[in-house]
């Protein structure tokens, strides 16, 4: 076993563990979606997201890429009672599981689900700063568009999280020309040079970029 694998295991076993409902969601996702279950964020990512929502006092959040709802549940639970989460996805099937778990967690009132290509959903929103927290975790080739559309609608001091910054390590291989990898590699570089934000790339799981709007 490599040191890297040991560290990842050690990290995941030294973060607040998921409660019963989240554990059930993990099992249900595996049973209902099979191989697609690998798309679910990890429990430690969920803890980080909830912690960041609480630390920043975020009230208006947006998520691109809901799947069966782990990340949206983590965010919605951390929002204040008058907080809102705009949740974007293309799948009725996968988000029906999310809706069930939002209900059971008592956070459905905070979440508005919009089904459709997220670029269209975001572009249809007023082009003014309203969001203070965002999570991007959908089709990788569209990340640059999601980043720009959300940044334009983020208040100063607002935070964007982008998952899969490493793309399984493929961003480090300059010969890898998979379109998703090329998009993420380019965006990681662009955010580093973007004077509109301060940024840090956390090596948690598949890498999470945090970008705070100046
Ligand atoms: C990696 S999964 C999201 C995982 C989720 N954040 C979680 O915590 O389990 C990616 C999701 O993006 C959605 N997706 C793919 N293309 C999309 C698009 N163009 N617009 C909106 N959602 C999209 C997929 O349906 C899928 O549910």
What features would you describe in this structure?
The protein is an alpha/beta fold and 214 residues long. It has one domain: Vaccinia Virus protein VP39 (Rossmann fold), CATH 3.40.50.150. Helices cover 43% and strands 21% of the residues. The protein has eight helices and seven strands. It has helices at 3-12, 20-33, 43-56, 70-78, 92-105, 118-123, 143-152, 179-192; strands at 60-64, 84-89, 111-115, 131-136, 154-163, 197-202, 208-213. A seven-stranded mixed sheet has the order 3-2-1-4-5-7-6, sandwiched between helices. Strand 1, helix 4 (70-78) and strand 2 form a beta-alpha-beta unit. Helix 2 runs antiparallel to helix 5. The radius of gyration is 16 Å and the shape is globular. S-adenosylmethionine (SAM) binds at residues 39-41, 64-68, 70-71, 88-91, 94, 117-118, 137-139, 142.
